[in-house]
Structure formats: C-alpha cells, structure tokens
C-alpha cells in the first residue's frame, strides 16, 4: 500500500521533479565556477581540483590584461546600452503610437537582427568595415553592439507602451498639461519599466557578447569574453572564475534590490 | 472634451495657434523623425553589410591586390561541396539541442507558471541568473564537469552507458569531452533560457480555470495537457524553438571548447576563414548560405506550426 502511495505521489509530481532536474542542469556550471575560483590548479588550466587557495580572490588583477579587458567591456556595455536605449525607445514609441506608411517593413527590420545567427551579422559587418578600411577597435565594437541591442530595446519598450491606457494621457491634457508636461509627467514614468528592462537586457547582452565582437574587434582591442577565449587556448587563470562569480553576485544583488525597491514602493502607494 | 476623445488614441493634441493644416502635416512626420536615427543605424550597420557581404561572396582577388566583383559564383559551389558535411552537422546538432531544450525547458516553464506559487519569482531569477556569468566561463565549466576523470564519466562508464553511446557514435568509449555528446550538451545548456522564457510567458497567460474546466469534463491530467495546455502554449513553443535553433546553428563556441576537430560546425569554418585564413569571399559565401538555409527552414517551420504572430 505504502509503495503504491509513493508511486502515486511520484507520478503526480513528475513535472516538478523534471523541473528540479532542469534547474540543476542550469545551475551546476555556476557552482563549478564558484568552487574553482578557490582552486590552486596544478598546471596552466583550471579544470581539475588541486587544493584550496584564496590567491585569486586576493589578487584578482594579477594576470596580464584581464582587468583592462573587464573595464573595456564595462565601458562598451554602458555606452552601447545608452545608445541602444535612446534609439530603441524612439523607434518603439513610433511603432506603438502611430499608424504610418511603411510600418510593416520597419517592424520586419526590427525583428530581423533577432532572427539572424550572430555569426552572419558579425561576419557581414566585419566585411563592411574591412572594405571601407575602417580601423577595427573600440568604435567598431560599439557600433556593432548598439546595432544588435537596438531590437531588444524596441521589443521591450513597445510591449510596455502598447499596454498603456491612453486615457491617462487624455486625462492629463484635460487638466491643461502641455504635450511636453504630459510626456514627462505621465507617459515617460509609465513607460519607464519597459525602458529599464530594455536597458538591462542591452547591458547584459553587450557585456557578454563574444561572436559579433570577435569579428569586429581587431587584434589589439580585447574585451573580457575575448580575453577568456584567448586564455582558454593557452592557459586559464583562476582569476577568470573570480570575475565570473563577481559578475553573478552583482547581478543577483541588483535583482534582489530591484525586487525590494518595487515592494517598498508598492507598500507606500 | 469631445474633440479630444475622438482624436486617435494617445496621439498628442497640438496647441491651438498653429494652423490646422500645418499641424496635421507636422504630426504626420513625427513617427518618421522618431524612427530616423534607429532605422538609419540598422540600415547602415545591418542591411548594408548584408548586401555588401552578398557582393563580397562573388568577388575574386586577394588582400594585397584588392577584390573585384567578378560574379565568381563558383565560390558558392566550391564552398558548399567542401563544407556540406559541416552544414549538415550544424543543423543536426542544433536540431537535437532544440528538441532537448524543449524537453528540459517545458516542465520547468510549466512548474514555474502553475505550481510554483510564491516561489515563482525566485525560480524565474534562478532561470535568468546563470546568464549573468559570462557564457564562455560557464561553457568552460562543462570541461570540468565532463572531464575524463570526473564523476559524470565514471558513473556513465560504471553503468555501461558509455559503451552504448559509443556504439551509436555519440561518445567515445572512455570519454565524453571532444565528442558530439559534449557539444550537444553545451549547446542545450547555453540556449535553454531562450526556450524557457517564451514558454513561460505563453503558459503564464493561461487561465488556471481552463484546467479545472477540463477536469470537470472528466479529462485526465494528460488529456488536459494534450488538448488544452499544449495547444495554447504553441506560440511559446514556436518562439522558443526558433530562439534556440537559430543561434545554435550558427554557434562555434561549444564545438570549439567542448568538441574536437571532428565535431566542428559551419560556424567554426566561417570563423577560421574570416579571422585566420583571411579568405573573405568564401567566408561571405558560407555565411550567406547559412543565412539562406536558416531562413528557408524557419519559414517552412512557421508555416507548418501555423502561427504568424511571433512578435
């Protein structure tokens, strides 16, 4: 009887077990990255456990140009986020708010970069720069990043603006707000979560991008993912794991802080 | 009041002093001004490169002497003849990874949408959180997990699974790294969130009362799933499979880091042609063909799946 009950219980929760297994599959590499940031590897590669050490955590910038590459990645990510968010928000407003000729091709053009393998975009943009004899480096990477972040911003902001109640703006205007006031005091605050989501997405995609960056970076501009790629061929310093873990922790803190902020704001209103 | 409420939804009303004809014309231009910078950016840095790439693919020459358009279409034929196996391998690996992502991702998305209760947000963060560590580092972590002296390999070996998988060519008889299994496993892992998020958004919209209704009509849980839940979540399935399959078929990172030369995908070829061999016409032709193949597969798939409202 008990066995039967157990079997029944297991069958009823089969989906949940599968979900837990999936979560495990998704999380285990992060755990490995964390654990191996405390490793002192025997050779040049950090793939098997040797013994515990805090070296990498106390000397995070001791390896070559790693920290320079991290700061380069951050600079590009911030600038790409700002650029893509401004351009993308404008496009999103046009698409969500206006009926105009050429709407369908514009929508298609926004969708296309998201439906294209990165390597195709990276290789073609790289070919263009090459043939125009434009020097590869910081600016070519930035241009590429703004290009592929744009569509994600448009999608995020458009969804938010579309779901907004147009009567709120009409109410503001009934109360004699000028179009500028209406935009700044009503429209923008309501669209803000969508804009923030688009910006965050851009930042995450930009800082982690490797394929498009590799095709548009040239030999002397090395972002953090490119540093990791290069290191993976000739010896992987433990410090890479420290940076990986730090990125993870900072991002999780941001999410938690955002959630708490949202909760207190909700409680106040 | 009446004038405002008959205005098109959300359109900003103009200030009175401007003559109505000019105001209307100016307002007509507003969307174009909004679009201008963003669309220009995409035209110059996305569309133009595509066109340029198409022209590069039919050029001949070398870096020193410069390239001329010679309509040398043989580049395509030669490239295809030489690398057809790589295309095939890319599509097969990406296809298997997509199916695995769906099989792994669906239960998780389903659980988050219907069974998680107040844990829902925590689980969503857990799905997205791995994203925050650079994916190259996470992919390299699989080298540790699947290492020859690691737990996974020794367990698979003890259970004689390795012998079975080696027999069908998935692994070799004593290791997982540098085999197709490792590459597919890495692809599946890397693109799983792209599957889960669209699945979740489409499942979350389903009214739970639909499940109750199906149950009241004596549908068994599996029938409810087959006849109610799954059909409603189909747009999410289509979006998720596309978001997984497209980037996976162009990927070269997993094949490079987790595979051996005999697992190389078409991305690896394009990458080395472009960055190492500096054979730009062939690289352009290969990437153009990859794009064409994907576009064909995607459009056939979307038509079969019967959903056109993807965005």
Key descriptive features of the protein:
heterodimer, A: 269 residues, mainly alpha, MetI-like fold, 2 domains, two-stranded antiparallel sheet, globular, B: 311 residues, 14 helices
What does this 3D model show about the protein?
The complex is a heterodimer of chains A (269) and B (311). Chain A has 2 domains: 1-56 and 237-269, no CATH class; 66-221, MetI-like fold (Orthogonal Bundle). Chain A has 269 residues and is mainly alpha-helical. Chain A has 12 helices and 2 strands, in the order ααββαααααααααα. Chain A is globular. Chain A has a two-stranded antiparallel sheet. Chain A has helices at residues 2-12, 14-35, 55-58, 66-97, 103-111, 118-131, 138-162, 166-174, 179-208, 211-216, 224-234, 239-268; strands at residues 39-40, 51-52. Chain B has 2 domains: 10-41, no CATH class; 74-305, MetI-like fold (Orthogonal Bundle), CATH 1.10.3720. Chain B has a two-stranded antiparallel sheet with strand order 1-2. In chain B, strand 1 (59-62) and strand 2 form a beta hairpin. Chains A and B meet through helix 2, helix 4, helix 5, helix 6 and helix 7 of A and helix 2, helix 3, helix 4, helix 5 and helix 8 of B.
